[in-house]
Automatic annotation (TrEMBL):
It comes from Marmota monax. This is Dehydrogenase/reductase SDR family member 1. It comes from the Eukaryota. Gene3D superfamilies: NAD(P)-binding Rossmann-like Domain (3.40.50.720). InterPro entries: NAD(P)-bd_dom_sf, SDR_fam.
Length: 163
């Protein structure tokens, strides 16, 4: 990518890098992904290479679908956390649609080093999930002050502006 003078690197992360989710290694790993995107973007920008951290929402993976079907309406803590929202979760294809949109954005360098929630990218680029789900009416996550400034510089987040 550096010799070509352009490129895009996408690391998959989640809000688990900001708040406890699942376990310590998960959180530390996701925090590292976000920091990696910010730091690598700093070093690669002058080469025309973008590096971003993509935060998919709750994703209907095969493993999670099977787990939810098996647990039903159980008292399981994971089911309690994700079960009520699982029907509105995004497909596994949605992240791919986001990456394609980013890769074809002529202004991708303006997003380099940022945390990019998939719902915000769907709205920004007018994407719909494979089942027709749209995020047009949902709030822009980058506009919500759910991240204490002392934990993470808000400059890591994209500004949620339309393309």
């Amino acid at each position: 990518m550096v010799p070509a003078g352009r490129g895009l690197i996408v690391v998959i992360s989640s809000p688990g890098g900001l708040q406890y989710m699942f376990n310590v290694p998960y959180g530390v790993g996701k925090a590292a992904c976000d920091r990696l995107a910010a730091d690598c973007a700093h070093e690669l920008r002058h080469h025309g290479v973008s590096y971003v951290s993509l935060w998919p929402g709750l994703v209907q993976t095969e493993l999670l679908k099977d787990y939810m079907a098996e647990k039903g309406h159980s008292e399981d803590s994971l089911f309690k956390q994700f079960g009520p929202n699982f029907s509105s979760a995004e497909s596994t294809e949605m992240s791919g649609k986001c990456v394609v949109a980013l890769a074809t954005d002529p202004n991708i360098l303006s997003l380099s080093g940022k945390v990019l929630p998939s719902c915000d990218l769907a709205r920004r680029y007018g994407l719909q999930d494979v089942d027709g789900k749209s995020w047009a009416q949902q709030p822009d996550l980058t506009a919500i002050s759910f991240v204490p400034c002392s934990l993470l510089s808000l400059s890591l987040f994209s500004q949620g502006q339309s393309a």
